[in-house]
Design a protein that fits this description.
The complex is a heterodimer of chains A (351) and B (119). Chain A is α+β, with helices and mostly antiparallel strands and 351 residues long. Chain A has 9 helices and 17 strands. Among the domains of chain A are: 96 residues, ApbE-like superfamily (T-fold); 129 residues, T-fold (Roll). Helix content of chain A is 33%, strand content 25%. In chain A, the strands form 4 sheets. Chain A has a 9-stranded mixed sheet. A 3-stranded antiparallel sheet of chain A has the order 3-5-4. In chain A, strands 8-9-16 form a 3-stranded antiparallel sheet, with no helix packed on it. In chain A, strand 8 and strand 9 form a beta hairpin. The longest helix of chain A has 25 residues. Chain B starts with a helix and ends with a strand. Chain B has a domain of 77 residues: mini-chromosome maintenance (MCM) complex, domain 2. Chain B contains 2 helices and 8 strands. The chains are: A alpha+beta (351), B alpha+beta (119). The interface between A and B is large, with 45 and 36 residues.
Chain lengths: 351, 119
């Protein structure tokens, strides 16, 4: 047969060649699944050519996340609530093995953030109604009670860990890992994926995201939610292994007399932190990014730059309560706005 | 130019608009909506046929509105109504969830604009 062959056989061969690519079933592809886990929506994306391996990995990760959720739960009966009971009674409490590195990391990050990331304020979070499965009530708590809990100054430095026994010098310390646990869980899940031979993945637990590798031959593309209104504010391409976390006042909140009361409580005042609507941080590990986004949110317009420097952060994007966007120079290089028109923004260097 | 050459040229030119839309288009509008209850996929519906979908969750019925390629929660039996506040979803990768009712929706597109969204 010469080519081009004018017989029907020649045309069929040409068509077959054109469609050959579509028949390649061994190609790597995207496997994406969403679960309701850890009290939130967990979105897992894996790029892999091995369906069996992928399904096995997803099953293992979901089991792990469920286990962590149950062990670190701050208001359902759990090893953490039992530990908190002991601390409140002035007794030593037992820290389960899975919680020891989480606790140590939390103490270190609380120090690094000048106490603005403070997992010891469980009582305040409970008082505000953010330690329950339902939406919080629609009225702020009594000012005198807020004052009492703030004056008591519960902090991570009050804790002493000896082996697996934890004691507190301050009976007002009640641990709530809400501002770090999901990030830390994502770090462990990524570690597990690597051990299972998966090197291209995203795990996103309720907006606590870590990406490794790529989506085939292009980087993973991450959208950052618009804090006011629908859609995506900006997108960023992940570079290999890194975490992107946003803390926002829209995640859990109630409104009272036209004012928004959200779940990010300033340990210094006892009230929801004011000034920002969302803070996005990129950092290698998700636990640090999680705690850092909370610390910067609490630090507010006056102090966020100092805390960012102290915590060794480089990539930060902040949306304030007027919708203005502020970015560090390193972040500005990577952000692509997706809103039309793009928001007003400024680029601010760290000290 | 042989007849086969002409076919190749015509095919290449015909493919151009498709390639442009796929790789340089302004956005990847979603094709379908995946509805999940309790972490399990219950249905996938086209975004191009307008409809209201009532989904039975663990608290009661969530109602999802599909309208001209977009979708949103219009009601849900939860207290916070975060799902309703999320508003319209239209691009591949966007999603919303009513966690108390354990109902979530996600937009699926041939090529997603975002692989995942930080919220």
């Amino acid at each position: 047969m010469t080519f081009p062959d004018k017989t029907p056989r020649g045309w069929i061969l040409l068509l077959m060649l054109l469609f050959l690519n579509a028949c390649d079933i061994q190609q790597a592809q995207l496997h994406q699944q969403q679960f309701l886990l850890f009290g939130t929506l967990v979105d897992i994306s894996l790029w892999s050519d091995d369906k069996q391996k992928t399904e096995n990995a997803i099953a293992q990760i979901t089991t792990d996340l469920e286990k962590m959720h149950n062990e670190w739960h701050a208001w359902h009966d759990s090893p953490l609530t039992r530990l908190n009971k002991a601390l409140a009674a002035g007794q030593p409490g037992t820290v389960p093995p899975s919680m020891i590195p989480l606790l140590q990391k939390s103490i270190a990050l609380s120090n690094a953030s000048d106490g603005l990331f403070n997992p010891a304020i469980g009582r305040l979070i409970n008082l505000w109604g953010f330690q329950q499965d339902d939406a919080p009530s629609n009225t702020p708590p009594d000012a005198a009670r807020i004052q009492d809990l703030t004056t008591a100054q519960p902090k991570m430095q009050d804790l002493v860990l000896a082996h697996d026994q934890l004691t507190s010098r301050n009976p007002n310390v009640q641990l709530d890992f809400g501002a770090i646990a999901k990030g830390y869980a994502v770090d462990l899940a990524i570690e597990k994926l690597r051990a299972l031979g998966i090197h291209n993945a995203i795990i996103n637990a309720g907006g606590n995201l870590r990406a490794i590798g790529k989506h085939g031959d292009r980087p993973w593309r991450i959208g950052i939610r618009n804090p006011r209104g629908p859609g995506v504010l900006a997108s960023i391409e992940a570079r290999g292994d890194e975490s992107m976390l946003t803390s926002g006042d829209y995640e859990r909140f109630f409104e009272y007399q036209g004012k928004r009361y959200h779940h990010i409580i300033d340990p210094r005042t006892g009230y929801p932190a004011r000034g920002f609507t969302s803070v996005t941080v990129i950092y290698p590990d998700a636990a640090t990014a999680d705690a850092a986004s909370t610390a910067l949110f609490v630090a507010g317009p006056q102090h966020w730059r100092d805390i960012a420097k102290k915590m060794g952060l480089q990539y930060i994007m902040i949306v304030d309560d007027k919708g203005h966007v502020t970015m560090t120079p390193a972040m500005a290089e990577r952000v692509r706005f997706e809103l039309n028109p793009a928001p007003n923004f400024s680029i601010v260097a760290l000290p | 130019m042989t007849r086969a050459d002409r076919v190749v040229v015509i095919l290449a030119v015909a493919l151009l608009p498709f390639l442009y839309m796929t790789y340089w288009g302004p956005s990847q509008q979603g094709d379908a909506l995946r509805v999940m209850v309790n972490g399990k996929e219950t249905m996938t519906v086209s975004l191009h046929a307008d409809k209201h979908i009532t989904v039975h969750g663990s608290l009661g019925d969530s109602v999802i509105d599909v309208d001209q390629g977009k979708a949103r929660f219009i009601s849900s039996p939860c207290r916070g109504k975060q799902c309703v506040h999320t508003g319209w979803l239209g691009q591949g990768g966007e999603f919303a969830a009513c966690l108390p009712n354990r109902v979530s929706i996600a937009v699926i597109a041939e090529e997603q604009r975002y692989d995942s969204i930080v919220f």
